[in-house]
Amino acid sequence: MKSEGPLANDWSLSDGKGYILNHDRSHAAASRLNLQFYLWKDALKYNIHPSIQPSLVPNALIADVASGSGMWLIDVSRQLPDAQLDGFDLVLRQVPHRKWLPANINFRFWNILEEIPDDLVGKYDYVHTRLLVLVVENKDPRPIIRNLYKMLKPGGHLQWDELDTVNMCIKKVDRNLQTPALDRLREWSWADGRHDWTIELPRFLAEEGFRDAGIDFVGDGTEMARAFTEQHLLTAEEFAQVLVKLGKEEAAGNYLRLVQEAYEEEVAGAALCVPRVVCVARKPLSV
Hints:
The protein is an alpha/beta fold. It has seven helices and nine strands. Strands 3-2-1-4-5-9-7 form a seven-stranded mixed β-sheet, sandwiched between helices. Strands 6-8 form a two-stranded antiparallel ribbon. Helix 3 links the parallel strand 4 and strand 5 (152-163). Helix 1 (27-44) runs antiparallel to helix 6 (222-245), helix 4 crosses helix 7 (249-267) and helix 6 packs antiparallel against helix 7 (249-267). It is globular. 36% of the residues are buried. The model is unreliable at 1-9 (pLDDT under 50).
C-alpha cells in the first residue's frame, strides 16, 4: 500500500469536498480566523484599498463575501458607520450574535459557487472577498468572478485579497539553519501549482469584463514572520483534523508530526513566509 506521507498529501485530498477547513466552525477555527484578520490588517495597514476608499460615499452599500467570523466587517463599520455592510458565508456560526453587532451589519447564508440571488444583482458599490484559495476549483476563479461582477453596481469596485504561494520562501536568522519540516510545508502549500492562479487575478478579472485591474504584492516583515508562521501551522493542524474525519488517519498523523517539527524549527529562528496579494478592479459604468 502506498504510504500517505506528508509530501503525497497536498490539498488534492480535499477535491470535491468544497471548503475543507473548519467544517464544524469550532471555537478554535474561529480563533484562527480572528488572528488571521489582525495579522492581515497589520501587514496591509488598511481594510479598504486606498485606491477605493475615496470613491465610497458615507452610506455606501458594501458586501464581504466569505465573511468568516465577521471581523473585517466589524472593523469597517468603525470607519463607515453609515454604510450598509452585508456579510455572506456558508455557515454563520462564527459571527457574533445579532444583538452584539453594529446596527449597520447584516449576515446572510450564501454559497459563492451557486447562482447569485436576484436581490443581490447590481446592488453594491464595493465588494470585498478574502482567501478563497481553498474554494476555487480546478485553478479557475472565473465562476466566482462572474458572481462578484453581478453583485456590483455599474462603476462599483472589487477588492480580492489572496495568498501568493508562488513566491513563498523560508526566512532564517542563519542561512545554515536546516529546515526540512518548513520546507515540506512550503511544498505542501504550493501543491504543484494548485494555487498559482492567485497572482494571475488581474488577467482573469479583465477577461470577465472588469476594468483597471491591478495587483499589489505584500510580503512579511521579519518582526511578524513568526506570528504569520504560527497562523500557517494552525491552518495545517486544522487540515489534519479534517483528514481524520475523512478517514485518513495516517496522513493526519504525518501532518501533525510535521507541524510539531516545523514549530521547533521556528523556535530556532526560521519562518514560512507566504506573501499576500491584493487585487482591485472596477465594473464598467456601461456594460
